[in-house]
Amino acid sequence: TLVGRLANGNSLYLRTPVAAIEDSVDVTNQFLLLSGGVTLALGILVAILLSRSFTRPIRELSHIADNVARLDFSERYMGKGTDELSNLGQNINTMSAELQGTISNLKTANAHLMSDVEQKTRQNQAHQAFTPSIKSAKASIISARLLPKRSNAPA
Fold first, then answer.
1. Cβ(66)–Cβ(77) below 8 Å
2. pTM of the predicted model, to two decimals?
3. CB atoms within 10 A of CB 77
């Protein structure tokens, strides 16, 4: 019941059944609960989709970085865009290509060094085999000079 006085001095009595108001409040509460639940579910779904769109490139970059750490340069980051993750992916691709080239150059240089070492080893072995025969010849020459000469004249 609503009771009040009007500006002209008259009294006002307003009576409304409480059941109608309670029904209206129940309908409003149900609507708010349902719309809140739907909004919450949609918010969670959007959050999951957005988080996957952020974590997928990070996981891919992590996988590629693991491969590079194991000296496997077969995979490249294929993400397009101008964001930080795409920039990081392109930098990993550049680093991977540079490392692959450097390792290839080092392997080639190592093969040349191994060939040079083998050649020097063969030369040293040949020198060591030749040195004793020179020493023997030198000793023969020295001993021949030191021995007295025999004359063929009769004594």
1. no
2. 0.55
3. 20
